[in-house]
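We were asked to recover a plausible sequence for a given structure. The inputs and outputs are reproduced exactly as logged, with field labels preserved.

PROBLEM: sequence recovery
POSITIONS: 317
GIVEN STRUCTURE:
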């Protein structure tokens, strides 16, 4: 399938231009001419240097760190496209920041994931393309269509290529991630295990029980995000204590904040498999980190959206 190139244009902010370039190469088009810079006082300057009138615009901009900067870039770019009379503005957000603030867990908490959704819609976006939202209900925070792309198929293909299908146990590091882990386990034909833990405060977790047999097995610990890496490293240590042969860690979004790299470098993890929804700085490229490209998945979704075809067909067996 080839895009009708003169009717579709792809733009990028500064959050992940390398991913945008890969998507453009998949689509067979060039990245649109836009200059996203800063004024001398630090305010964001956006200049769209080509016509987008009547065009189906896709703007690639994850709201990864620095999240507030990248989010503002996205909002201002959307506003610029709207005022330039683009026919449709599709915000491609490979990593949706603030997604973990999706509900009130105590009195007077904000629901920031909903606030961000409101801002994006108000700026002028007509459609959202996101990868592995932390909570699937975030789709309902938007009053516009949301195409939610799972990262599991990309991870599953990699592990199949390593011959781990049917030879591994897929571990969910908490009860909330069971659906994702079950999906990966089904694709690999592998059994499922679950860690039952409690989290006394943010970014601190305690392992309570392991449900499932991991003895002598290759264990794949899968999550949507690795942030400070406390959960995945703790899970890996417990798996080795339970007699696992080896442990792999897999996630879609390598946030890797705070002590993450130090923890991962010391953890008994054979390989850390992530995607490029978030760019990794050189100092975060540990020898055992494998980065998979999510560009083909996003590129195919963009083609289908542009041609008004089903996106869900991408994930049917």
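RECOVERED SEQUENCE:
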């Amino acid at each position: 399938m080839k895009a009708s190139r003169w009717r579709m244009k792809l733009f990028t902010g500064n959050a992940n231009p390398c991913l945008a370039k890969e998507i453009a190469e998949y689509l067979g088009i060039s990245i649109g001419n836009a200059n996203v810079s800063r004024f001398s006082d630090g305010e964001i300057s956006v200049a769209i240097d080509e016509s987008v009138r009547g065009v189906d615009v896709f703007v690639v901009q994850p709201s990864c760190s620095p999240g507030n900067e990248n989010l503002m870039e996205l909002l201002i770019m959307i506003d610029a496209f709207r005022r330039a009379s683009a026919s449709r503005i599709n915000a491609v957000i490979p990593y949706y920041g603030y997604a973990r603030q999706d509900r009130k867990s105590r009195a007077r908490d904000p629901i920031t994931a909903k606030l961000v959704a409101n801002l994006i819609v108000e700026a002028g976006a007509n459609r959202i393309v996101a990868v592995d939202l932390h909570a699937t209900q975030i789709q309902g925070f938007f009053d516009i269509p949301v195409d939610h792309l799972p990262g599991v198929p990309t991870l599953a293909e990699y592990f199949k290529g390593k011959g781990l299908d049917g030879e591994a146990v897929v571990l969910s590091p908490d009860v909330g991630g069971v659906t994702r882990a079950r999906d990966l386990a089904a694709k690999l034909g592998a059994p499922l295990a679950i860690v039952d833990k409690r989290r006394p405060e943010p970014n601190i977790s305690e392992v309570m029980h392991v449900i499932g047999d991991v003895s002598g097995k290759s264990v794949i610990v899968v999550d949507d995000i690795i942030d400070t890496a406390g959960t995945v490293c703790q899970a890996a240590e417990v798996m080795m204590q339970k007699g696992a042969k080896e442990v792999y860690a897999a996630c879609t979004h390598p946030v890797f904040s705070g002590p993450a790299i130090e923890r991962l470098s010391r953890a008994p993890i054979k390989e850390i498999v992530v995607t490029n929804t978030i760019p990794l700085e050189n100092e975060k490229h540990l020898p055992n980190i494998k980065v998979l490209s999510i560009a083909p998945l996003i590129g195919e979704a963009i083609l289908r959206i542009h041609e008004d075809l089903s996106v869900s067909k991408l994930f049917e067996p």
